[in-house]
Amino acid sequence: MTVAQSSPVLDPYDYGFQADPYPVYAWLREHEPLHHNPELDLWALTRHEDIAVALRSDSVYSNSYGVAIEKSAWGPDAHKVMSILGMDPPRQNRLRSLVSRGFTPRRVHNLLPRIQELTDRYLGECLEMGSFDWIADFAGRLPMDVISEMMGVPEEDRAEVRRQADIVVHREDGVYDVPPAGAEASLWLVGYYMDMVAQRRKKPSDDLTSALIEAEIDGERLSDDDVIAFLFLMVVAGNETTTKLLGHAAFHLTRHPDQRELVFGGAGNTDLVAPWVEETLRFDTSSQLLARYLLQDVELHGRVAPQGSKLLLCLGSANRDESVFSRPDEYDITRDQDELAKILSFGGGRHFCLGANLARLEARVALTALVERARSIEVDHDASRRVHSVNVRGFAVEPMQVVPR
Ligand code: HEM
């Protein structure tokens, strides 16, 4: 898809769009802020203001069909695998208040030593190699292991759980729906989590799975199916997204040698890690498109998206909206903090990402360790390869070289 065309069509399956969706978003923000792709019968909102409102209007923009673009994951049964992400209030409220017990600041903070330990181990291996793949050797390992740690998956099972979770989200080029291997891996994970829930019912422990089993509000507890669907959601929502954030952080910083120098120059400046993470979340977020099911007609900018339609909230576009962010297409880790506070990378309203604090903590720990231990980092941008995915944006391969301090 190119902007040379007078009116581009937003097609999430188009490899050109996946390679660089930003020119299409920019055109649509200016000329067609409520957009329709007639072939796929998909609607889309691209302006920050419209998306921010939609995220908070669940009586119109419903999550009840899930948030996925892929057809097989869309429909009224979405909550069976997406848990709260595929529900509207009041059910989503009740369940979210139960599961959020697992994400209290204390629980997230308690993970810090383990995140540090995993970071040190995987980064240590990378530094020893000197030249490695940032995704396969680091960014693709840490987030899933942290999720397993939270859930209470025993250490000896984690590599296999990570392998299966990778298959769940992997898409070969040209594959537009969930492939058989992905469905099989999903069943494997569901079976694994079923066994784990059964074990925790017999013998509770100090992990998230036990906390979910024991959580109670007004006498209500979660069923096994509820707990398993939520554990599965964590894998889908919290694993690849965080991997891709780490991938983008290294990729974009190294494309800007002046900014890399600010972070890695001299003895290294770890104070810049937090803004580096936030600007990366803004500039190239891993969760670009969220689907909504319209419960009512939506009339905006002179056109009507009818009730029953599927509409995409383009978070990646909101983060580049020129009416909110100055020089939106520039990557600038020294950007004004008030601007950065307006990013929509973690959504907003009732479905605001439950794992946002955890994702930020993981990214900060990992990148702080990188700054402390590496004197310089270099990414081979030409050899880096993006995933072809309609769900997440980020790199599958990112060759990196580091010189230890
Ligand atoms: C950079 C990393 C991440 C990004 C960009 C991200 C993005 C998002 C977004 C945009 C939503 C809102 C979806 C909607 O409105 O329909 C969301 C929801 C959610 N995220 Fe994240 N996420 C990240 C990491 C994580 C992690 C690490 C976890 C947990 C381990 C997690 C768990 C969840 C859950 C449970 C929800 C559903 C909340 C609800 O429906 O009430 N996420 N995430």
Care to describe what's here?
This protein is of the alpha+beta class and 405 residues long. A 5-stranded mixed beta sheet has the order 1-2-8-5-3, with helices on both faces. The protein has a 3-stranded antiparallel beta sheet with strand order 4-12-9. It has a two-stranded antiparallel sheet with strand order 6-7. The chain is globular, with a radius of gyration of 21 Å. It has one domain (63-287, 345-404): Cytochrome p450, CATH 1.10.630.10. It has helices at 15-19, 22-31, 48-55, 79-82, 91-99, 105-110, 112-129, 134-139, 142-151, 155-169, 180-202, 208-214, 224-238, 240-254, 257-264, 273-283, 315-318, 337-340, 356-373; strands at residues 34-37, 42-45, 61-62, 131-133, 289-294, 298-300, 303-305, 310-314, 374-379, 385-386, 395-397, 399-404. Strand 10 and strand 11 form a beta hairpin. It binds protoporphyrin IX containing FE. Protoporphyrin IX containing FE binds next to helix 13, helix 14 and helix 19.
Strands of the biggest beta sheet: in what spatial order? 1-2-8-5-3
Shape: globular
In the CATH hierarchy, the architecture is: Orthogonal Bundle
Per the CATH scheme, the topology name is Cytochrome p450
